[in-house]
Amino acid sequence: MFDAVRNNKKIVQGFLLLITLPFAFWGVDSYVKNMSGGEDLATVAGTPIQQAEFQQALREQQERLRGSLGENFNPAMMETTEARRAVLENLVNQRLLAIDASKMHLAVSDERVRDTIVGIPAFQDNGHFSQPRYEAVLKSQGMVPQVFESSLRRDLALQQVLGAVAEGVMVPRASVEQVYAVQFEERVVSEVQLAAQQFASAVKLPDDAAQKYYETNRKRFELPAQVRAEYIVLSKEAVADQLVVGDADIRKEYDAHPERFRQAEERRASHILIQADKGAGDAVIKSAREKAEAVLKQIKANPADFAKLAKENSQDPGSTEKGGDLGFFPRGAMVKALEDTAFGLSREGEVSDVIQSDFGFHIIKLWPQRQGARAFRQ
Fold first, then answer.
1. Strands 355-357 and 360-366
2. What confidence tens digit (pLDDT) does each residue in 165-191 have?
3. CATH number of 266-377: 3.40.50.1860, 3.30.450.20, 2.70.98.90, 3.10.50.40?
4. How confident is the model at residue 294 (pLDDT cuts 50, 70, 90)?
């Protein structure tokens, strides 16, 4: 029986989904009854889930529903307490899975991230991956490639955690047999066709039969009203080609809607992580801190070697191969200790002292200006 289960992981994952879904609507009621404030909505293992992260997840869920439902999509669907609670519960579950992935030292290679992106239909043009389309789709969602790729890498790591659960799950024989019965059920059907022409000559109708049938089924013979009309198509592109927009018009539009052109502050930083959970013993924490301080000494002696030392020493599977580069991120996207330190650095290229988070000890470097892009975005 267990061989059948392991060979049909999608069936097992379906059972896991059925078990998980009910928890998406209960259990975090107190967090979603008042989501208009600026306080943290939930805390998972000391890491807060903030309003910005929740609103982003809510927007993503809305776009998924809009894509699947089309014209039937109603934005009010996501305004219910149950829907918002489900989004928050999903964020909590993702955070818990991320902690498990970190503890299990699960890593996702750059090659797998690249292959996954190339295979996403939304980024393809005529069946082939298109870099301009990729960047345009992300821009339309208010994202940059670094943030999207980091999020994708995290999601792929979470899939490995769920895969480990599916590998070890045990499903009752009755449940497996029921699923197989539904999938492989067959029916034997016999059919007899009776041609109307065989019986037409035996049917005798009274003279008024047609009139009576018409009166009884009048709606079946009605046709909807039709209108013959002429119309003109105004092409937005053709009209735009005839318009001339001056600097004064641009300034006027900007002054009228400044909120549309604002972007929350983001920073780009690299880090080196020496893992040590807060629950680890004193000896483990002491050893990790000493190693981090030793690496910091090497950085202070040779600041240009930060990326090289990150590849050699960092234990963060998501950024090690990139020299510790975390890309651009806003407030609320990283663990609080790392975020506070990154936003507290004031000079491009500045390196922090050793700081501690729930995951271990970090050394953070603020990116310098490169190719006309600054490390700060306002």
1. antiparallel
2. 555 566 678 877 887 777 788 888 898
3. 3.10.50.40
4. very high
